[in-house]
Structure formats: C-alpha cells, structure tokens
Amino acid sequence: MDSAVTATERIRIVLVGTQHPGNIGAAARAMKTMGLSRLALVAPQRFPHAEAEAMAAGADDVLAAATLHDTLADAIADCRWVAGCTARDRRIALAQSAPREAAAQALARAADGEVALVFGRERTGLENHELQLCHAAVHIPANPEYSSLNLAQAVQVLAYEVRIAALAGRSGEAVLSPLGHREPPASHAQMEGFFGQLAETLDAIDFHKGRTPDAALHKLRRLFLRAQPDEREVRLLRGVLADAQRMARLAAARADDEDAH
C-alpha cells in the first residue's frame, strides 16, 4: 500500500470566513494541481457562487465535494493534528514552522489520522480563539517589505510542499509517523471534551482562587496538545478528573452539613 497516497488523502484544506468566492475557486484549483482534493469551508460569506466555479478552472469536483461548517471546531472535530497558517507573532503560544517543515509533519501525522491545514480570512486571518484550536502555526516567510499574499497563493504554497513531501516518500525517503507504534492520538473533539471537563474541574477545586482562569487554561491546553495523548490516555485523564470532581462535591456537601449544625 502506498502510505504517501493514503496520508495525502487524509489531509484537508480548511478555509475560514472566506469573503470572496473567487478565492475559494482559486484555492480549489491550487489544491487539485498538487493532488489534494478535500476542502472544508467554515462560514464562507458567499458560496456556492458562479465566481468560485469560474476561478476553479476545472477543479469543479473539489468544489462539489467541499463540506460546509458553521465553526472551525466543527470542521476539524475528527482531526488528530491541525496547523493554522498565520503571520509570525511572538504572542502566539504555538510551535511555528515554515511550510516545508509543516507539510512534512502534516504528512507524517496523516499516517495516524485526519489532518487539517487551516487558512483564515483574507484581511484578518485566524482569530485568537481559532488559533487556540490548532496544534501548530505555519508561517510563510514572504518578503517583509511586501508580505501581502493572496489566500489562494498561500494554499498553493502549502499544497506544493505537501506534494513534494509525498513524492519524497514515494521515492524511498519515507516520512515516518512521529508517533512510532503508539495508538493514534485523540481526535480534536475528544480533546475539546477533555478541556471542557478540565475547566470544570479546576473551578470545582477552586484552583484559580479568584484569578482569571484563561492564562492557566491556555498553558494547560498547550501542554496537552503538545503531548498528543491517545484515546485511552484521554479516557484515563478524564477518569482522574471525574474522581476529582466527585471528591469536590463530597467536600462541599460536608462543608454544608457542618454549616447547618
């Protein structure tokens, strides 16, 4: 079995909040020229649209098969690794990679499950809460004096690098999964369920002690996303949290009884 082809088929391009339908068509064309076919659209302003079909220039099948989603979380719910394309920013608490490195990693991760490469809005890119859903950030090192890159051009750059990585794998330079013989990592939806329970547990045990919970939760999110726990490990962690929540309820009940007496 050609693992490079299988991995490529597990990679999807996700466009978030696209304003111009022509950019969706041009992105579909960029994908098809590099052997990618899975397109997901999150809340596009105008789609379907004749301009998208015109700019696809023969990639109509990619457009026809595109999936529509209300939120980025929905579009990547089954993904095990997600990379967001964004401008370089030291404030972003994500591992930041160049396209070649990110493409090789995406192909390797796709050996174990679904992968998404996410692109934001034409003018504003991805919002912070959307980047929080990603495992890594991809930065295209354009000319700093003129770094304006069209959405479809950005898709073309990443799709090309995925193509090169896949061809290298077929020629014998195999792209190995960084997870080795581990179980596949938990899906995005499973991780989000864990993060929701973690937030509830931290509140239940008064971990924050009046401080804003955002900073701690963001750091914990980065830690667990970097660790890439598998499904069994997430179930174990959630079991620990469930016990912590149970003990917190018992402690609260005892405190109420003491107050009553």
Observed structural traits:
2 domains, alpha/beta, 261 residues, SpoU_MeTrfase, elongated, Helicase, Ruva Protein, domain 3, tRNA (cytidine/uridine-2'-O-)-methyltransferase TrmJ, RNA binding, tRNA_m1G_MTases_N, disordered N terminus, seven-stranded parallel β-sheet, Alpha/beta knot
Describe this structure in words.
The chain is of the alpha/beta class and 261 residues long. It has two domains: 3-170, SPOUT methyltransferase, trefoil knot domain (Alpha/beta knot, 3-Layer(aba) Sandwich); 188-260, Helicase, Ruva Protein, domain 3 (Orthogonal Bundle), CATH 1.10.8.590. 51% of the residues lie in helices and 13% in strands. It is elongated, with a radius of gyration of 21 Å. The N and C termini lie far apart (71 Å).
**Radius of gyration based on Cα positions:** 21 Å
- What is the CATH third-level topology name of the largest domain? Alpha/beta knot
Biggest sheet overview: 7 strands, parallel
The assigned structural class equals alpha/beta
How many angstroms does the end-to-end distance come to?
71 Å
Percent range of helical residues: 40-55%
- In DSSP terms (H or I, runs of 4 or more residues), the helix count works out at 11
CATH architecture of the largest domain: 3-Layer(aba) Sandwich
User: How would you state the average pLDDT, rounded?
Assistant: 89
- SSE string: HEHEHHEHEEHEHEHHHH
The CATH class of the largest domain, by name, is Alpha Beta
- CATH H level of the largest domain: which superfamily? SPOUT methyltransferase, trefoil knot domain
Uncertain ranges: 1-5, 172-177
GO molecular function: RNA binding; tRNA (cytidine(32)-2'-O)-methyltransferase activity; tRNA (cytidine(32)/uridine(32)-2'-O)-methyltransferase activity
Subcellular location: Cytoplasm
Subunit structure: Homodimer.
Keywords: Cytoplasm, Methyltransferase, S-adenosyl-L-methionine, Transferase, tRNA processing
